[in-house]
Design goal:
Blueprint lengths: L2 E12 L39 H13 L3 E2 L2 E2 L2 E4 L9 E4 L6 E10 L2 E14 L3 E5 L6 E5 L6 E7 L6 H18 L11 E11 L9 E6 L2 H20 L7 E6 L4 E7 L9 E2 L6 E2 L2 H9 L5 H12 L3 H8 L2 H13 L5 H19 L3 H7 L2 H12 L5 H14 L3 H8 L7 H14 L1 H8 L4 H13 L6 H17 L1
Parallel strand pairs: 12-13
Antiparallel strand pairs: 1-10, 1-11, 2-6, 3-16, 4-5, 4-15, 6-7, 7-10, 8-9, 11-12, 13-14
Helix pairs in contact: 2-3, 5-6, 6-8, 7-8, 7-10, 10-11, 13-15, 13-16, 14-15, 15-16
The structure holds zinc ion and manganese (II) ion (MN).
Length: about 475
């Protein structure tokens, strides 16, 4: 029998407001000493009164609108009761039956196919405190840092419309990109301001049967989500095939071991005893406010992708890659602006090729690269390359050097003597050496094997450390080989 996976994702993302959700404490706590961004409200003292952060409501509305949700006219906050040491009040002020947004959708691309994924709800709540577990012998204890508690947290619940780990990864990347464009969250997976939980179950293909749902937590990157889901689908399939029972539970992803481990059983559903938060008034969201907020939405990734196709003549594929990161797309447009003589397609190839490789090797994001290398400087380099002053291969290594040293291309070229060799006389000397040193390849060429010429050109490039002009090298080599044949 074949099985299919049913996957639904829940994302919690901190909103980029200046103050917390229900008090005036600053949200800028990342480098602050523990428990310095606190007040009686977020410490959960008795008798205090929370106040709704208007900006957080508006940011949530922006996200909900961008996800094609319907915005509630009447909404309220509810108490979600549970006791855990990271929750100061013993309850979280969240939203139960009147989320700000509901019934939306998100479009993803998988293998060139479009797929619409339902968005169940988008609601607003507050983050919890951070627990630090000390395990050293003699000081084994847990510490509580309340700085994070009360930071506005938006929860986005997706429909279980996903069937493959790759679809889940695309969904998350798309959602992340939209939040980046909206600028409502720093949405950093590393810092924990963008966190994902996944619900996974499997069932016989084509059936609508509901089997035990497993919740997976603790995934800190898109790759981790993909790997954890892949692992879970295999584990559950194997369990069913061997007659074992898949139990409803919460499991944590352990990156180092590449596996999920059981954290707690969910046999007894939590009873959160939700009830309307008596300390806050319900909220009426006027249609005027919705319209005003809708008018504030920036150009979103899909619209920008389509514009890149029509305005710059890029392929849909390249436009999609460039616009998935707002910073990459901004950099592209600035670079095209800085030098109008360079083709947009060339700029796109540089960003998706060499620049992306630099980001990967150094494990940095586009903003870090942009801080070190300005678009003006890259435009200067591309111009130098297009004029034939340096070869393409050299230009690539110059760009790496520019990132590492913060120097301009002209400085690097001057110091390292990297200008392209187009001088026929000099190249003739090198070509002669290469011909002498590669007798078998020369024989192959003469026997009609055209690829041997490519090989010989490569050898000249190697000797000159990529500085030779490949076009001139090819001409020089051809001429020399012909002359040899005549002797
Ligand atoms: Zn506070
Ligand atoms: Mn939540």
């Amino acid at each position: 029998m074949k099985y299919e996976a049913v996957i639904g994702l829940e994302v919690h993302t901190q909103l980029r407001t200046r103050s917390k959700m229900y008090c005036r404490c600053s949200t800028d706590y990342v480098n602050a000493p523990p428990n310095t961004h606190v007040c009686p409200v977020c410490l959960g003292m008795p008798g205090v009164l929370p106040v709704i952060n208007k900006q957080a409501v508006e940011y949530t509305m922006m996200a909900a609108l961008a996800l094609n949700c319907t915005i509630a006219e009447y909404t309220k906050f509810d108490r979600k009761n549970y006791s855990y040491p990271d929750l100061m009040k013993g309850y979280q002020i969240s939203q139960y039956d009147t989320p700000i947004g509901r019934s939306g959708r998100l479009t993803i691309q998988v293998d060139g196919q479009e797929k619409k994924v339902g968005i169940t709800r988008v609601h607003l709540e507050e983050d919890v405190a951070k627990l630090v577990h000390r395990t050293a012998v003699g000081e084994s204890c847990s510490l509580v840092d309340v700085n994070r508690s009360g930071v506005p947290l938006m929860e986005i619940v997706g429909e279980p419309d996903l069937h493959f780990p790759e679809e889940a990864r695309q969904y998350l990347m798309k959602l992340h990109s939209i939040l980046q464009y909206l600028d409502v969250s720093t949405a950093s997976m590393e810092d924990g301001s963008f966190r994902c939980d996944a619900n996974v179950s499997i069932r016989p293909e084509g059936s609508s049967e509901l089997l035990a749902k497993v919740e997976v937590k603790n995934m800190n990157s898109f790759r981790a989500v993909f790997r954890a889901l892949e692992y879970e689908v295999k584990r559950q399939t194997r369990a069913i095939e061997t007659g074992e029972k898949v139990v409803q539970e919460t499991r944590g992803w352990v990156e180092e071991n590449g596996e999920t481990v059981s954290q707690r059983s969910k046999e007894f559903a939590h009873d959160y005893r939700y009830f309307p938060e008596p300390d806050l008034l319900p909220l009426n969201i006027t249609r005027t406010w919705v319209a005003e907020t809708g008018a504030k939405l920036p150009e979103l990734p899909e619209a920008r992708r389509d514009r890149f196709v029509t305005e710059y003549g890029l392929s849909l594929y390249d436009a999609n890659l460039l616009t998935s990161s707002k910073e990459m797309a901004d950099y592209f447009e600035n670079l095209c602006q800085d030098n109008k003589t360079i083709l947009a397609k060339t700029v796109s190839n540089w960003l998706l090729g060499t620049v992306s490789a630099i980001l990967n090797t150094n494990n940095i994001d586009m903003s870090e690269f942009a801080d070190q290398v300005s678009t003006e400087r890259v435009a200067e380099l591309l111009l130098t390359e297009s004029q034939g002053v340096v070869s393409t291969a050299t230009a690539k290594s110059i760009l790496e050097e520019m990132y590492k040293t913060g120097k301009s291309s002209s400085e690097i070229i001057a110091v390292q003597g990297l200008t392209q060799i187009s001088d026929t006389g000099e190249l003739e000397k090198i070509a002669a050496q290469v011909i002498q040193a590669n007798v078998p390849a020369v024989a192959d060429y003469k026997a009609g094997k055209a690829q041997s010429l490519t090989f010989l050109v490569g050898q000249v490039m190697r000797v000159t450390h990529g500085r030779a002009n490949p076009r001139v090298v090819t001409e020089v080599l051809k001429k020399k080989l012909e002359e040899e044949g005549e002797e």
